[in-house]
Automatic annotation (TrEMBL):
<keyword id="KW-0805">Transcription regulation</keyword>
<dbReference type="GO" id="GO:0045892">
    <property type="term" value="P:negative regulation of DNA-templated transcription"/>
</dbReference>
<dbReference type="InterPro" id="IPR036388">
    <property type="entry name" value="WH-like_DNA-bd_sf"/>
</dbReference>
<dbReference type="InterPro" id="IPR016032">
    <property type="entry name" value="Sig_transdc_resp-reg_C-effctor"/>
</dbReference>
<dbReference type="InterPro" id="IPR003018">
    <property type="entry name" value="GAF"/>
</dbReference>
<protein>
    <submittedName>
        <fullName>DNA-binding response regulator</fullName>
    </submittedName>
</protein>
<keyword id="KW-0804">Transcription</keyword>
<dbReference type="InterPro" id="IPR000792">
    <property type="entry name" value="Tscrpt_reg_LuxR_C"/>
</dbReference>
<keyword id="KW-0238">DNA-binding</keyword>
<dbReference type="InterPro" id="IPR029016">
    <property type="entry name" value="GAF-like_dom_sf"/>
</dbReference>
<dbReference type="GO" id="GO:0003677">
    <property type="term" value="F:DNA binding"/>
</dbReference>
<dbReference type="Pfam" id="PF00196">
    <property type="entry name" value="GerE"/>
</dbReference>
<feature type="domain" description="HTH luxR-type">
    <location>
        <begin position="454"/>
        <end position="519"/>
    </location>
</feature>
<dbReference type="Pfam" id="PF01590">
    <property type="entry name" value="GAF"/>
</dbReference>
Length: 521
């Protein structure tokens, strides 16, 4: 499962919204250049004319990639990441020197103008997700265009860097890639600005072979045709994932070059890991920010629970989510809400943890505060729940407040009815942090709200009590209810009495009215 799949989808949505509103956005962007950007009294470190020049250049870079005829020719639309990379390349070709603060400000100006352009006077057609998608697009754009020194490090760039080191004795490097077990030459990199003979390069790129040794022999044979003393040279092989590098070096320097390459590419992997970590941090920051914005739109605690459940699906690679609260005094877990599930069925779930059971053993596992992955839900949960909700693979992620050291509950996540899937360490680590963030979010609500919610949950009627009270509501007598539910009249009376007590009613009529008001029946 791709951890940041939903974040990538949001980037694409942002691109799509901009493309659908091309005319109004272009007009609003052009208006920016006619206004005073730096208002009177504002303390800014940039000259307005220079700032406008940078803003205009950024507009041109974006328009060249966003607003093109080609976008209409593809049914699948534009790859958001690919488009951002193209914008970055176009921007850097301009050779403009700009610091990160000015870059952030330029993107902020364009984002505000975009929101203004797509906003309709009556507010119709624009959802909160639309605004989030546009905001996310410009946030990622700003991050992509930041002048980070490491983001220029790619394999070809690193090879060119190696040619600048005196100890590197390779004359050229053949860069091949492996696809479906077949190696094919992708490029040949030479130092000192040399350019490879196009005819020789075409011959190399026509080679397709499963054997590295055969590829090496073919390269040496083709090189020998040019009169080069290929017998005095060797090809040193280095594999990096699906990439294959063949270094053409003098035979006398082979041993020394091997040691040099081992050290150089160990450093390369460290650099790439640093870059990858930085990218993950950007994605994680975006994920938390978007999730937090969504949950904080809730005005009541009950609404916050609904936003949490939907947020796990909106921003993480899951299709369904059920949210449960743990009541420590009652030693009970109760269903709060769900997303892409029958919410009423989730709310009817109430499980006691005091007596030995499958559920109690399950609680012990999730109270380690680490998510658990269940390959087959029928082996870990009561068969009734596995069948009712058509569960297969499942992730259960605890919600925990670090500040209060309190276990609050858990979310149950899957890919849909009967779907089997796998997870990786990155996703599980993200879920740990998400559980902590959600826990702290809930603690921001006043404790009185939380207490009131627990009282409301404690007063919930059991499924059997709901059946009985529904029949009472329909005017059935105790005898009629007894026959309909195959219960003794004494048992029916007990259910009615317990229901009246739970909802704090004065009598059965009052209890029915309260139960209807609270949505129990």
């Amino acid at each position: 499962m791709q951890v940041y799949q939903r974040i990538d989808e949001l980037t694409y949505e942002g691109v799509a919204i901009l493309q659908m509103n091309e005319r109004s956005i272009s007009r609003e962007w052009e208006q920016l250049l006619r206004r005073h950007i730096i208002k009177e009294g504002q303390v800014m470190q940039w000259d307005e004319e220079v700032l406008k020049s940078h803003l205009e250049t950024m507009m041109k870079c974006l328009k060249s990639q966003l607003f093109t005829d080609e976008k209409e020719d593809t049914e699948e639309g534009v790859d958001g990441k690919a488009l951002l990379n193209e914008v970055k390349l176009t921007w850097r070709e301009k050779g403009i020197s700009i610091d990160k603060h000015e870059m952030t400000f330029v993107c902020h100006l364009l984002e505000n103008a975009t929101h203004k352009a797509i906003h309709k006077p009556d507010g119709s057609g624009i959802t909160f997700r639309n605004h989030q998608a546009v905001h996310h697009f410009f946030t990622v754009l700003s991050q992509h265009l930041m002048p980070y020194p490491l983001d220029e490090i790619n394999l070809n760039g690193y090879l060119h860097y190696l040619f600048s080191i005196p100890e590197f004795s390779s004359k050229f490097v053949v860069h091949a890639c492996k696809e479906n077990e077949i190696f094919q030459v992708k490029d040949v990199v030479e130092g000192n600005g040399d350019s490879m003979d196009p005819e020789w390069l075409n011959m190399l790129q026509s080679i397709r072979t499963e054997s590295i040794e055969l590829l090496k022999k073919t390269v040496l044979r083709l090189r020998g045709r040019e009169g080069d003393a290929s017998a005095k040279h060797v090809l040193i092989t280095l594999e990096i994932g699906n990439e294959l590098l063949l270094f053409y070096v003098p035979q006398k320097n082979a041993s020394r070059t091997k040691s040099f390459l081992k050290l150089a590419f160990h450093m390369y992997e460290d650099i790439r890991e640093t870059v990858s970590h930085a990218e993950h941090q950007i994605n994680w920051s975006s994920l938390v920010s978007l999730f937090y914005e969504w949950v904080m739109r809730a005005r009541r605690l009950e609404d916050a629970f609904e936003h949490i459940a939907s947020g796990y699906v909106r921003y993480l690679p899951f299709e369904r989510c059920a949210l449960f609260l743990y009541l420590p005094k009652e030693k009970k877990g109760v269903g709060l809400t769900g997303y892409n599930l029958n919410v009423s069925e989730i709310k009817n779930i109430s499980e006691q943890f005091s007596s030995p059971s499958v559920i109690q053993e399950f609680l012990k596992k999730i109270r380690t505060y680490r998510p658990i992955f269940i390959d087959d839900a029928s082996e870990a949960l009561p068969e009734y729940y596995a069948n009712k909700f058509k569960l297969n693979s499942l992730v259960v992620s605890p919600i925990y407040s670090l500040s209060k050291k309190e276990f609050i509950g858990a979310v149950f996540l899957d890919q849909g009815e009967g779907q089997k899937f796998t997870v990786n360490d990155e996703l599980m680590n993200v879920l740990v942090k998400m559980g902590h963030h959600v826990g702290e979010m809930l603690m921001q609500y006043q404790e009185s709200q939380y207490d009131n919610l627990q009282k409301t949950i404690t007063s919930r009627l059991s499924p059997r009590e709901i059946e009985v009270m529904n029949l009472v509501k329909n005017g059935k007598s105790i005898n009629e209810i007894s026959v309909a539910l195959h219960l003794s009249q004494y048992t029916v009376r007990d259910y009615i009495s317990s229901s009246i007590k739970k909802v704090n009613g004065r009598n059965r009529t009052h209890a029915v009215a309260i139960a209807m008001q609270q949505g129990f029946i």
